[in-house]
Amino acid sequence: MKYKCLVFDHDDTVVNSTATIHHPCFQEYLNSRYPGRTCSLEDYFKKNFAPGFVEMCREEYGMDDAALQDELEYWRAYVEKHIPLAYPGIREIMGRQKEEGGLICVVSHSLEHNIRRDYKANSLPEPDAVYGWDYPPEQRKPAPFPLEDIMERFGLSAGDLLMIDDLKPGYDMALSCGVDFAAVGWANDIKSIEDFMRANCRWYFKSVPELAELLDV
């Protein structure tokens, strides 16, 4: 076991959800509340990468706190009816980690309820801890709190963790905590995102088997 704890992002890292659920939901929301406004899938990926979803909503669409809450409720209702599929090979990586006595934690901008539902629906091992959108803003990724809490909670050091994520907030969080980071790009082929990750991250993987090889699975 290379790392005692694998810390997974959820969307587009474990499950294929942006292209199949989150982006269609957001465009549907725009059609309902901001007729005529559109957001391409590529722009949605780019803006979620940086500056982040909330910042995109405020800057690109002028949403205030009330509008953001409205969008959140719309999204909650949508994702309750849509379950994403896990990427092939993820189950095997997680299963090996648990069989060897390791931990699986999740740090994501999805809700804990939906994350645990998706794990169950895809026959993935139950996570040992989940840090989702349910936490206060100051404790959500990219804040260091999730990784710091995992280390304190399970008696681990930074070297015991590997953060696996497709977007910059995960990278920023891992960097702030001195935790190893593996960037993954199997959800999209956007050059600007790939260029940043390749330039700044120790590892960048375009396929699940590449990650498995790093972990000796």
The averaged pLDDT comes out at 96
Total number of beta strands: 8
Report the biggest beta sheet as strand number plus sense, adding barrel if it closes: 6 strands, parallel
Proportion of helical residues: 40-55%
Gross morphology: globular
**Over all CA atoms, what is the radius of gyration?**
17 Å
Look at the helices and sheets and give the structural class.
alpha/beta
- Calculate the terminal CA-CA distance, rounded to whole Å: 9 Å
The string of secondary-structure elements, in order, is EEHHHHEHEHEHEHEHEH
Strand content: 5-15%
How would you sum up this structure, described in words?
The chain is built from 10 helices and 8 strands. With 217 residues, the protein is an alpha/beta fold. The strands form 2 sheets. It has a 6-stranded parallel β-sheet, sandwiched between helices. A two-stranded antiparallel ribbon has the order 2-3. Helix 8 links the parallel strand 6 and strand 7. The longest helix has 16 residues. The relative contact order is 0.18. The model has no long low-confidence stretch (mean pLDDT 96).
Write a short abstract of this structure:
By secondary structure, the protein is α/β, with parallel strands linked by helices. The chain has helices at 18-33, 41-49, 53-61, 65-80, 90-99, 112-121, 145-154, 168-177, 191-200, 208-214; strands at 5-8, 15-16, 85-86, 103-107, 129-131, 161-165, 180-184, 203-205. The radius of gyration is 17 Å and the shape is globular.
